[in-house]
Amino acid sequence: MAKGVALVTGGGRRIGAQIVRSFIAEGWYVLVHVRSSVKEAQTLLEETQNTESGSPSGEVIVADLSTDEGLSHLIASTRRVIADRNQTGLGVLVHNASIYSSNDFEAVGLEELRLNTRIHMEVPFLLTQALTAELKQASGCVIGMIDTSLGRSWSGLAHYTSTKAGLRQLMMNLAGDLAPEIRVNCVAPGAIMAAAWEAEHFASVLEKVPLGRGGSPDDVSKAVSFLVNSEYLSGQVISVDGGWSVAP
Ligand SMILES: NC(=O)c1ccc[n+]([C@@H]2O[C@H](COP(=O)([O-])OP(=O)(O)OC[C@H]3O[C@@H](n4cnc5c(N)ncnc54)[C@H](OP(=O)(O)O)[C@@H]3O)[C@@H](O)[C@H]2O)c1
Known about the structure:
By secondary structure, the protein is of the alpha/beta class. The protein has helices spanning about 15-25, 40-45, 70-85, 110-130, 130-135, 160-175, 200-205, 215-230; strands at about 5-10, 30-35, 60, 90-95, 140-145, 185-190, 235-240. It is globular and about 50 Å long. NADP nicotinamide-adenine-dinucleotide phosphate binds near residues 15 and 34.
């Protein structure tokens, strides 16, 4: 018998996939939202299927969250699964979907800025709002995946860091607005998995990490699970960055 229903946006690969794996291992029935990583998500669910009962460990929902139709589809699909499985609401919602690109401040166009705002702020706002009743039913929790950029200047990343800061503040605000039924927290990964465009300078980043190594997706999913399972924690941010954010 599953623990309840958990939804992870952008859960088909990389860090999101590890969050999905750890939730399944804990007994959650996981809705793996993807935009393009459909095969990866299907394989992940096949690998984690309950071998004894043969029952699925979750299902894949495909939606491009840059569109209103995609967001509506994700909301409707989540509600349908909860109803079909006779579940009492939504236990966990992880806002993990993200975009990450570097561009000079003066070159960032309106489209790029709006997409960052859409994925990092507008979608988490509207998705949480639409699923608030379901989260309340389950005394659920929400986790925003942010990063360690807060309060510092990062060259070529103003469009990314400012919208992630918006997500952080949204989550902190909701920790008050949605209490006492729903807990809301953030996980802020540091240098975990390089994007393709930053692979070359990733080694120099790692030199600055006090713990002397990059983090793994497992390091991040452990913090996510800790927040999900810590029933008196709300309005918190856990940095999973090997001490990077406090390094001199
Ligand atoms: N990697 C790191 O070291 C690091 C560091 C700091 C913070 N973080 C944060 O931790 C989280 C996970 O990191 P990550 O590097 O694994 O994330 P990622 O690969 O950059 O993105 C996660 C997923 O977001 C989905 N996505 C992008 N645009 C979308 C759209 N328009 N509609 C729907 N989904 C969309 C993609 O799904 P598809 O693959 O299905 O297209 C992608 O797999 C992110 O929130 C990230 O900001 C990561």
